[in-house]
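Task card 7
Instruction: Convert sequence to structure tokens.
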Amino acid sequence: MSDAYVPESRWRTLAAAALVGGGLLLVAFVGFRGLSGGGGEEASTGADVRQVAFHDAEGNRRTLADYQGKVVLVDVWATWCPPCRKSLPEVAELQKAGGDRYVVLPISVDRGGWNDVKPYLAQNPQLGLTAYVPDGAKGLEPFGEIRGIPTTIIIDRQGRVVKRWAGYGEGMAKRALEEALKGR
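Output:
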């Protein structure tokens, strides 16, 4: 009898863990949806997003228009997001390699802004990441609804969306950047 009980308890434990995990993901997803500006639609391919505004760590306000003439990869992320944390080493590597060819802008949507981002970056100096935060509630609004994070958006030299996706897949950002760079 005890042999029959152990597997059943394991299944109950696994089922409970799956329900709790799924519930937490749902809460994070629903809670995050409140952060994304826009009217419920995401910016489509070709949308002009030059007015997207954000701040650097020194408080300087910037927009994507500041990078006109360069291909831009925007990575929308948060310190509490496990897939985001997994993607950040690749994002940082791409950021360092950009130079004159392209720009990588990791924009954190942590509710605490720099109060969340600066300690995270200080605890992870190996990343060498230069991060940004949105300029208020409407800073990322031109992107439309951000339905999940990380969200990666590739922007062409004229400030238009070329490609956009949510989630992390190893090498996806690099491949999309290379495609956009060929599009001269």
